[in-house]
Design goal:
Rossmann fold
């Protein structure tokens, strides 16, 4: 089952997704795919990353990558949690210079195709951008527009969509 887990900042979406995927994997290995860079000088960010690592079971394998489509295609059956799609999209927009004139469409299409083809349990954690103010900067609006459109495409591809609000899951789409 492919699940898209949406929520605001600090809503509990990662922790909820970890618990769901751990239960689905039934003691089998789980691949945790971290998409965000870890700036060495950012102490507060390092604490957040450490808290995420500490709560994962020991059998989980961590992969740090911005090439999520390739990693999903490389091993399409191991239970996988991608955390998070917003970090991946930021790296993709950087890579393609899409903040200016470039296009992230090829990478976005590759991600959606890799998710659609994934055969094992998969949880994708992504920020829900529709619950905030319209960003004041052009780059902020570009990110919100791109992530909103990507979340919609992933939701259409996934079997299940869950919105996390204050740590509580609200199922938006259930498999039939």
């Amino acid at each position: 089952m492919r699940t898209l887990v949406l929520g605001g900042i600090r809503s509990g979406k990662s922790q909820w997704a970890e618990g769901q995927l751990d239960a689905a994997a039934q003691q089998e290995p789980v691949r945790y795919m971290a998409t965000g860079a870890s700036p060495a000088a950012d102490v507060e960010w390092a604490r957040r990353v450490a808290a995420h690592r500490e709560r994962r079971p020991g059998r989980w394998l961590t992969t740090e990558t911005t090439d999520v489509p390739a990693a999903l295609r490389e091993d399409p059956t191991t239970a996988t949690l991608v955390d998070d799609i917003g970090g991946w999209l930021t790296a993709e927009l950087d890579r393609c210079d899409a903040w200016n004139a470039g296009s992230a469409a090829p990478g976005i299409n590759a991600l959606v195709a890799a998710v659609a083809a994934f055969a094992g349990p998969l949880a994708l954690v992504s920020p829900e951008v529709g619950l905030t103010v319209v960003p004041a900067t052009a780059s902020g609006r570009r990110f919100a527009d791109e992530l909103g459109a990507l979340n919609q495409r992933l939701a259409a591809t996934c079997d299940r969509v869950v919105l996390i609000v204050a740590g509580q899951p609200i199922t938006v789409k259930e498999p039939w």
